[in-house]
Design brief:
By secondary structure, the chain is an alpha/beta fold. It has helices spanning 2-11, 19-28, 37-43, 68-77, 88-96, and strands spanning 12-18, 46-49, 61-64, 81-83, 103-107, 127-134, 140-146. It has one domain: Dihydrofolate Reductase, subunit A (3-Layer(aba) Sandwich). It is 31% helix and 26% strand. The chain has a 4-stranded parallel β-sheet with strand order 3-2-1-4. Strands 5-7-6 form a 3-stranded antiparallel β-sheet, with no helix packed on it. The longest helix is centred in the first third of the chain and has 10 residues, at 2-11.
């Protein structure tokens, strides 16, 4: 699974995240010695969808206020792949507003009876399976794209 995650990070040009993930990562990655990931995340441009974050302290971070048009314009200016990790609320918002191009899920073979659900209170969105792989750990690597 580390190889799958590492390849995803390497293919990512910029990171998009919600405020909660930004707060968690900004508290960890700037001083992390977890290489080579720390250097990659710290150097990479980061965009945060937030109506409350005004002055991000983590280098190379830009705040997007969360209007659909602003995020659409941002997507059009990126040369390369926009990556996300976590940010369930932001994923739901992107999906609801037709801004999600691809949804990649790593489904682990464990049942957790509590916690935030990715698609909690989400209207139906039809997706098409674009790629899948079963890892030796039992984790499923699934890639979906919204139906046109």
């Amino acid at each position: 699974m580390g190889a799958v995650v590492g390849a995803g990070i390497e293919a990512t040009t910029v990171m998009l995240m919600g405020r909660t993930l930004y707060d968690e990562w900004a508290a960890y990655w700037p001083d992390s010695t977890d290489e080579p990931i720390a250097s990659r995340f710290n150097a990479m441009p980061k965009y945060v969808v937030s109506s409350s974050l005004e002055k991000p302290e983590w280098n190379n971070t830009t705040v997007l206020t969360g209007s659909v048009e602003e995020v659409r314009r941002f997507k059009e200016t990126v040369d390369g792949r926009i990556g996300m990790s976590g940010s369930a609320t932001t994923v739901r918002w992107l999906l609801a507003n037709g801004l999600l191009d691809e949804l990649r899920l790593l489904v682990h073979p464990i049942v957790v009876g509590h916690g935030q659900r990715l698609f909690e209170e989400t209207p139906t969105h039809k997706l098409t399976l674009a790629a899948s792989a079963a890892l030796s750990s039992g984790v499923l690597d699934l890639t979906y794209v919204p139906e046109s």
